[in-house]
Prior knowledge:
By secondary structure, the protein is an alpha/beta fold. It has a single domain, classed as Glutaredoxin (3-Layer(aba) Sandwich). It contains eight helices and nine strands. The strands form three sheets. A five-stranded mixed β-sheet has the order 5-4-3-8-9. Strands 1-2 form a two-stranded antiparallel sheet. A two-stranded antiparallel sheet has the order 6-7. Helix 3 links the parallel strand 3 and strand 4. The chain is globular, with a radius of gyration of 16 Å.
Amino acid sequence: MQAERLAxxxxxVEELFASGIEERILPVGARAPEFALNDARGRLVxxxxxxxxxxxxxxxxxxxxCPYCVTELEAWRDLHGTLRERGVLMVxxxxxxxxxxxxxxxxxxxxxxxxxxxxxxxxxxxxxVHTVPEYLRExxxxxxxxxxxxNGEASWRLPLPATFVIGRDGRVLFSxxxxxxxxxxxxxEALAAVFGSx
Length: 198
């Protein structure tokens, strides 16, 4: 990748880290916000219904255009059988439209619900939202990543890639997100919290 393109991403990561966003994510022990969001087929999925069945892994992702997000969701796809054997459920949540989620579910064989969070309203309650700065918008558009089109609205708000584990009592058991979108927690770290509560 060209040095000037790398510099754009590095600048955005540095500024996001400096904003203190990592200190504002919903911490372990907090009560997780309840949610009711549509899946890729337009069906309403309620967190309360899922938590009635078992602990819940909640994975926020930026979009199907992000190769890091796709790779991470594929890793969770491969672990899904293990989760289900232990009575654990999972959802992935992003700001893109239901249609975009449907494309992603089909293309990558994702077995868990992929939910639309318009305008990152739920992600904001988890403390993981930021607005893409103007220079990064221009860069994304120059490489044909049209975030407003994919998300169906013009705010340019995105979540940090974040992983939360919610116990059946609604409390957060695991909470991790990074300003650097390339850094992701190992699924095994979250699974330790899940299986400790399952």
